[in-house]
Amino acid sequence: MEYKNTSFMRRLMALVTDVVISTAVYAVILMVTVNALDFTQPTKNLIDLITWLITVLLLANIISVVYVVYFVSKFGGTPGKLLFGIRIIRDSSDENLDLKTALLRSTAGYSFSAAFFGLGFWRMLKNESRLTWHDELFGSRVVEKSSFVPGLLALLLLLAATTMIFAQSFGALYTKLQPIINNVQERQRQQLEENTVPQTMPETTTIDKSDFILDTF
Amino acid sequence: VYSTFDNIRRSLEIAWKYKILWVFALLVAGSSLNYSSSSNSGSKEDEQKIQEIIEKYVPDSNSVSSNITGDGIGERVLGAATSTTPFLQEYLSNILIIGTTLLAVMLFAMAIGLIVRSWAFGSFIYGTSEAVKNRELQLRNLSDVGRVRLREVIKFAVILLLVTLAAITILVAVPLSIILSREYVAGIILLIIATILLFLFIIVVTYINTYGIRYLVLQNSTAKESIKKGYSAFTKNVGNSLKLSFGNCLVQSIIGGIILVGLITLVGIFVGIAIANEGFVRYAVGALIVPAAFAGLLLFSALTGYMTTYKETTWTILFNYINGEGIPTEPAPKVEEITGEQTNGI
């Protein structure tokens, strides 16, 4: 069956959906972390929290590559693309890309297209076949297989859900941090009060002009 | 007849004509830049971290290096050990988790970097060869060659890297072990000889890399064969190779210098305008900084792409000469032009 190469707009929306999906994953991780936080041991917990977040951020580099390569070779596209009804297929047949091609397309191909401020991505706006450089390099096409409506609905739902999760997480974090913030503020206030109490004579032994005048009288 | 001057002139034309090669060149040059810059910054960061830890946990850390052989070092080491132990014990699991993850990510990034660079290098070298023959370049064809030769290119790179590392280790370890056994004079003489040998070795490896990759990509040799053939090509053409290296250095310096002077002049003019004027003009010049930075980055990328394409084309032309092909002095006429002329004639 002959499929039409998809438009720039649809590919862009699919990309946005992928970004929102990964943001939603981070939001869930943040929510779980915040809910598990226990500030009875603030220092230990803070270091654990930092360790956990650094580990997640570092691993995200590997996961993002593995995730794209796996989805492209197995299902013909990332979840965002699948939701928007578009598939990455070989230009010679309707089959999905093999693992090696998917890996090279997602690493070398994207790097190639990203050079000179993403010239290889913008190129699809100019040519009639709507191919990017990484499509041309690895003999792939991004085609429309079904309607974009499920993608649009999913994008709206995901945006709403992610916003809610972030709001809940930051709300919970604020509630847990509130007593600590109050405590710190209270201590600062006490210190300020102690400092403003009138002091006795300075400890320095410099000669004051007034002492000299008193002596002369 | 081969001439270095003709080679350079022709390569400058080819590099300008085939701009798509600049993108491959950027990937090839970019990966190597990333490697060097990341390793440098990594080591500096490590040094800084070590220094911070020493300052934090070693009492009187400033005098540690000066008093390393003197009295009191035992106390200092003991002090450091006792003060770091609770911290390490308490957060050992955190350090281990981050350390292991960081190592895994670095290894992964290195593997991906090697794949991308090897693919780009294979495609690029094939592209320069096609460009030298005045053929039209198809992205798909270039990529296919890079893909097919990917495994061998990676093997070639890894073998050369391991050989270089082994040579460096041996050439540094032998004189150092002699110096440590208190044979200072012999050790220093050996160290000087080792430094010279290392310098020569790195030069030879660079040429093996230059010729070997062409045997691998353009003549389908295996990684090991390519290294042997690359060495042989260099030893039989030392004069031409050195002449071309010198010529390339000269050309790169001249072009780089001209652009640098141009940029400095341009920046100077803008700064001058900003200083000499007030109000709107100054703000307007200030607002130009961001687009100017983008333009500068674009210019730098284009320059890197052009110069790398030029350099690799010169080596492809020399490689062709070594293997019995001459320099195509004039571009071959296109098929349409020939038929057009014939039709007009008729």
Can you put this structure into words, describing what you see?
- In chain A, strands 1-3-2 form a 3-stranded antiparallel sheet.
- In chain A, helix 1 (8-36) crosses helix 6 and helix 2 (42-75) crosses helix 4 (99-126).
- Chain A is mainly alpha-helical.
- Helix content of chain A is 72%, strand content 6%.
- Chain A has helices at residues 8-36, 42-75, 79-83, 99-126, 133-137, 149-196, 209-216, and strands at 4-5, 86-90, 140-144.
- Chain B is globular.
- With 346 residues, chain B is mainly alpha-helical.
- In chain B, 85% of the residues lie in helices and 0% in strands.
- Chain B is built from 11 helices and no strands.
- At the A-B interface, helix 2, helix 4 and helix 5 of A face helix 2, helix 3, helix 4 and helix 10 of B.
Keywords:
heterodimer, A: 217 residues, mainly alpha, three-stranded antiparallel sheet, elongated, disordered C terminus, B: 346 residues, 85% helix
Any idea what the shape of chain A is?
elongated
Number of strands of chain B: 0
Q: What is the rounded distance between the termini of chain B?
A: 37 Å
Looking at how many chains there are and whether they match, the oligomeric state comes to heterodimer
Number of helices of chain B: 11
What's the Cα radius of gyration of chain B? 27 Å
Taking the sheet with the most strands of chain A, its summary is: 3 strands, antiparallel
Order of helices and strands of chain A: EHHHEHHEHH
Number of helices, counting only DSSP H or I runs of 4 residues or more of chain A: 7
Weakly predicted, low-confidence segments of chain B: 32-47, 56-78, 332-346
Mean pLDDT across all amino acids of chain B: 81
Q: Order of strands across the biggest sheet of chain A?
A: 1-3-2
Low confidence ranges of chain A: 211-217
